[in-house]
Amino acid sequence: MKRGEYASRGPVPQEVISAKEFELPSLGEGQVLIExxxxxxxxxxxxxxxxxxxxLPPLPAVGGNEGVGRVATLGPQTDAWAxxxxxxxxxxxxxxxxxxxxxxxxxxxxxxxxxxxxLSMLSVNPPTALLMLREFVDLQxxxxxxxxxxxxxxGGYLVQIAASRGxxxxxxxxxxxxxxxxxxxxxxxxLVDGDDLHERVAELTSGAxxxxxxxxxxxxxxxxxxxxxxxxxxxxxxxxxxxEPCMLSPATFVFRDLxxxxxWLAQWFRTATPEKQFAVFRELALQVAQGELKARIQATYGIxxxxxxxxxxxxxERDGKIVLEPNKG
Length: 329
Ligand SMILES: NC(=O)c1ccc[n+]([C@@H]2O[C@H](COP(=O)([O-])OP(=O)(O)OC[C@H]3O[C@@H](n4cnc5c(N)ncnc54)[C@H](OP(=O)(O)O)[C@@H]3O)[C@@H](O)[C@H]2O)c1
Fold this sequence. Notes:
With 329 residues, the protein is an alpha/beta fold. The protein folds into 2 domains: 2-121 and 295-324, Medium-chain alcohol dehydrogenases, catalytic domain (Quinone Oxidoreductase, Chain A, domain 1), CATH 3.90.180.10; 125-266, NAD(P)-binding Rossmann-like Domain (Rossmann fold, 3-Layer(aba) Sandwich), CATH 3.40.50. The protein contains 12 helices and 16 strands. The protein has helices spanning 13-16, 43-50, 116-119, 125-134, 153-164, 179-184, 197-204, 220-226, 250-253, 265-271, 274-289, 306-314; strands at residues 2-6, 17-21, 31-41, 61-62, 68-74, 86-88, 99-103, 108-109, 144-147, 168-173, 189-192, 212-215, 234-237, 259-262, 297-301, 321-324. Strands 3, 5, 6, 7, 8, 15 and 16 form a 7-stranded mixed β-sheet that branches. The chain has a 6-stranded parallel β-sheet with strand order 11-10-9-12-13-14, with helices on both faces. Strands 2-1-4 form a 3-stranded antiparallel β-sheet. The radius of gyration is 20 Å and the shape is globular. NADP nicotinamide-adenine-dinucleotide phosphate (NAP) binds at residues 42-44, 124-125, 128, 149, 151-154, 174-175, 178, 216-217, 238-239, 241-242, 263-265, 316-318, 321.
């Protein structure tokens, strides 16, 4: 049994983590042993290793926030699960591991026909995309939404979910080389960021009033996105990929009465009722299992390659997610 462990944090994330052997604790009542099949490396995982994320586990810690596995062994008096069932791992449970012991009641059953690699990315990015589209502005079919970092996994899910709701999206990327991949993932309108973005967007949408802008970049990219919004539009920031504070000029912000909001899924988990959370996961799990919602995957790695995997995830210009398959040789 091996897992990706770290005992300190530092600016080069792959240098603080390594694959270590560990002993499994014996199973208690109501617990199951899970063989982990897949777990992605998200930007928040990288920020957790560098110490820049909004919530940090005590050290030493096991990396990884989400993933899927199969039930391998049942503990005493545990009959809610069958051996071999595909399950969603508890969020935040240190998922970069070949095996884990979990409380049976914290597991969520997944459709058995689903692709474990795609299902491993279910807990974080699909609900983020869905909730940002749903919780801030009462959008109607035919409305436009604009987002940057459209080449991200969240960006891809947002395009797919928006299309299924009859919404039109303007998708901004930071480099020309990403345009074709974002279009191939289903986005009709993809523009490269730049100072004249608002003019190109107005031409594309024939001047339609855009009521929702979704920003994962910060810095001047926030201002360029905000300039594309209509009067009293809402901009939701959910990430800071540029590493810079969101910039907004008073002329953009004040004269057009823009609303600036933040979204953090961790906060939604704290406040949404269990029923509401279950409804969101049920809806999204079915869509992922049926292949209606998916994200591009650049490469998969075994647990022994954890450092290479983290370096690839932290690197620039990826063409999809880095996913660990911890038990892969
Ligand atoms: N608030 C929340 O609850 C929440 C939940 C989920 C995710 N997030 C955040 O959402 C963002 C996207 O996550 P993800 O997992 O979808 O990401 P991802 O698939 O790993 O993709 C990262 C994206 O960021 C872009 N990027 C990197 N550096 C950039 C820069 N300096 N300027 C502009 N774009 C840059 C990349 O563009 P290239 O392709 O050009 O490299 C890529 O499109 C992250 O900031 C993440 O932390 C937040």
